[in-house]
Write a structure and sequence with these properties.
heterodimer; A: 254 residues; alpha/beta; Rossmann fold; 2 domains; 6-stranded mixed sheet; B: 287 residues; mainly alpha; two-stranded antiparallel sheet; two-stranded antiparallel ribbon; 12 helices; 4 strands; globular
């Protein structure tokens, strides 16, 4: 059986910088895999390469046995992979609910002819989407903020909304770029609980994470990246116990 | 009465045209300053068909709208490659190109002297020659335009367009085709501008390049800004307010040559004052 997500031999050079260097790894279905490594290790570049935002110089990405090489971001989503962004990229002037509606797969009324000539069907489609969006928001604990504009949401709520928006795409593999960064206390606990819950619902998660405490608590598997290369792969305990990796990660402070 | 009917009919035509600008600039965030050129193409095509063939008026308008759909898709496509401020410059070039063709292609457009004698619309044997009669046609045109605008804005398509304005990359990351949505919006805007052009040519029976030049494009933007971008109410209100201005100036006892200059001055000032102090216009959302 082919692996769930299979990344092989990715290379990407930006001018003089080797952002990814023969990077290969596999992600198993139904698990939470954390991608860790110092700043500039190539974590976001890997996300970009998997989701079609960037074409690697060489290498392949396959998902459930199907090649994703050369696909545009929108086609990758249709294969069942969706991502969040480190800088959120929410639609700030739209409500939380409309952000989620925007993530739902192409239903009726998303092109002008249908909207103009089939107004009643469009109404029904829209009502359906809005109801479904409310369920997604409830799932991440934002049901009561559905009609608030994004710019009026707290940072923690915005982070949750990013996850809600990609859940709306019904993707099975979620690529989360630093879902907990900038969060602390209750907001942090809430996101961690949400990630666990998504796993229980059958999603597979690949998470860029800096907080070692979070990694220890949620990760089934850790990928340690350094200078665009996969240095180590293992359980959180194994990775954290490795003095060589700690040296790289903390710059010799430990 | 004629005077008032003329004002209303013209304002209604400009509402239809303003919807085109509001859709592109206000909703999708494609900052086009070439909608007057598309408006002009619609006007000239309608005039040409009615003057040189036996094409019935409704068909002529449909042909004009159809060709303007294609044209507007073509001139909007660069927005997929160049974004934001850079597209303004591209679109500026397209507008100048349009004006150059209208002015210099003497055989087709009559050049700077314009095209006199565009026949009035005839539908089912009835000629809509008086402004009061024409008002019926322009009202239907405006009504249909507003209805379409309202229908798409409440649909998921409207949400998609607004999302594209906010963040194209995020839209692509959600599995949506930005290209498809932008082409659809450009097509719709082209249909609005083209049919407005057809109504304009047959209403005034005389057209010349000055109605479709860069000044006209900026006048159009002023209407959208003053009325209020991004909303239907703003698109409707803007033209009625701005077209009332020359009528009001006509009531004051000042020489005609001075009134024209004063009008331009006031339009310019309005644009600046609104952008500074009320960017959302009278009935719109912040641009």
């Amino acid at each position: 059986m082919s692996p769930y997500l299979d990344v092989t031999g990715l290379n990407k050079r930006f001018g003089g910088l080797q952002a990814l260097s023969d990077c290969s790894f596999k992600v198993a279905q139904g698990r939470i895999t954390c991608l860790v490594g110092p700043n500039g290790a190539g974590k976001t570049t890997i996300f970009n390469a998997i989701t079609g935002f960037l074409t690697p110089d060489t290498g392949h990405v396959a998902f459930r046995g199907a090649s994703l090489d050369g696909l545009s971001p929108q086609r990758v989503v249709r294969h069942g992979i969706a991502r969040t962004f480190q800088n959120l990229r929410l639609f700030a002037d739209l409500t939380a609910r409309d952000n989620v509606v925007a993530g739902m797969p192409g239903h009726f009324g998303e092109e002008p002819l249908g909207a103009i000539f089939r107004p009643f069907r469009t109404s029904r489609a829209l009502a359906g989407k809005r109801a479904a969006a409310l369920e997604v928001l409830a799932n991440v604990g934002l049901a009561d903020r559905a009609d608030a504009l994004v710019r009026n949401l707290s940072y923690g709520e915005q982070k949750l909304l990013c996850i809600a928006r990609i859940l709306a795409t019904s993707a099975e593999l979620l690529l989360l770029d630093e879902p907990t960064s900038g969060l602390s206390g209750a907001a942090l606990t809430e996101v961690m609980a949400l990630l666990r819950r998504l796993q229980a619902e059958g999603k597979t998660l690949l998470v860029v994470e800096h907080n070692t405490r979070v990694v220890q608590q949620i990760a089934d598997e850790v990928l340690f990246l350094h200078q665009g290369h996969l240095m180590a792969q293992g359980s959180p305990a194994e990775i954290i116990a490795d003095p060589k990796l700690a040296e790289i990660y903390f710059g010799g402070a430990l | 009465m004629d005077f008032f009917a003329t004002y209303l009919a013209l304002a209604e035509i400009y509402v239809l045209l303003g919807l085109s600008t509001n859709l592109l600039v206000g909703i999708v965030g494609i900052f086009s300053v070439s909608q007057a050129a598309v408006f002009g193409v619609g006007a000239y095509i309608t005039a040409f068909l009615l003057m040189h063939s036996s094409t019935p008026f409704p068909l002529a308008i449909l042909v004009a709208a159809g060709l303007c759909i294609l044209l507007n898709i073509l001139v909007t496509l660069p927005s997929l490659r160049v974004s934001g401020d850079y597209f303004v410059v591209t679109s500026f070039g397209i507008q100048l190109l349009g004006t150059a063709v209208f002015t210099n292609w003497t055989k087709g457009t009559g050049g700077a002297n314009g095209l006199p004698g565009v026949p009035a619309p005839i539908i089912l044997g009835h000629e809509f020659i008086e402004p009061q009669e024409f008002l019926l046609l322009s009202s239907i045109g405006m009504g249909l335009g507003c209805l379409c605008f309202w229908l798409i804005m409440r649909a998921p398509f409207g949400g998609l367009l607004r999302a594209i304005r906010e963040d194209e990359l995020a839209v692509a990351a959600l599995g949506k085709s930005v290209l498809r949505a932008k082409v659809s919006a450009a097509a719709l805007a082209g249909a609005f501008a083209g049919s407005a052009g057809g109504l304009y040519a047959t209403f005034l029976s005389f057209i010349d390049p000055s109605s479709f030049d860069l000044d006209a494009s900026i006048f159009l933007l002023t209407m959208v800004v003053v009325g209020g971008a991004r909303t239907l109410a703003g698109s409707v209100l803007g033209p009625f307010v701005l077209l009332a201005l020359p009528q009001i100036l006509a009531l004051i006892d000042i020489p005609a040559s001075f009134a024209a200059a004063l009008r331009q001055l006031i339009y310019g000032l309005l644009l600046i004052v609104f952008m500074l102090f009320r960017p959302q216009g009278l009935l719109g959302e912040r641009l």
